[in-house]
Amino acid sequence: MSGDRARKVRQFARALEQQFGGQVDADYDTGPKWRLDWVNGPSEPAVRTLADAADLAGADLRFYRRYSSKAIAVTAIRMKTAGKLDRYDGGRYPQEIVEWEARDLDHPDRGADALQDTMAELLIAAATAKAQTARAEWAAARPQRWTPGDGRPMPLDATETAVDLVRTRGVGWLVEQAITDGATVAPLVLLSARYAITTGADHAVAWRDRGEPMPLHAAVAAALADPELTEPAAVALLAVLPDLRAEWARTEAAITAAARRAGLPEPAPR
After folding, report:
1. How far apart are the two ends of the chain, measured CA to CA in Å?
2. How far is CA 74 from the centre of its chain?
3. What was the pLDDT predicted at 119?
4. CA-CA distance, 165 to 129, in Å (whole number)?
């Protein structure tokens, strides 16, 4: 084993840690082969590009990137929100397609915003509890002399359960739970969390599956029709007034322009 090669490979691993954060392990294999192992952090293609440009004294690097439960939860939420993780995608082991999605992402454990981070944490907690219950029930029902082919298959672990929950339940419930726990969200999101499920199939499905807010006017109409309007919903209604005014200003400008194209005179100032 070349001492110069070992030094350069380990220096490369330390440089990755300084650039991206987190721990990068460099372990010798055989001959010129070395293994780089890390969790989350930079994507494998990003590391490969840096390695190709580095002087590693002929080292043949093998890359092994692993993912934390948070990374899997965040990526699953992103995929579901984008319509890329449907109910039956991935069969019994949908975690594999989530990991494949995360392959090209740097820091897949970091949510796009504070709400997404909170949703991921709530998802992990719910999945952990569900997986523990399922494993306990499975163990209690398992025969004394059990082999892998006997009876029910072993339940999913917590990370697999997190992906399955997002795949089957969507993400709207996570937004609702985050709001209940005090998360700050946009006014339209708050109104959607309260009214989307009860105001029509299209709104309900979009909210349940993707956490997609209702159209502004539909959300306002639902709140105005609510005989038990809550204080947070009323505050959200007031907060969307600037959006409504801006929308009306755009509509007024478009109507005026259309009238001029039709040959009508410029309307008098109001």
Report:
1. 85
2. 4
3. 98
4. 12
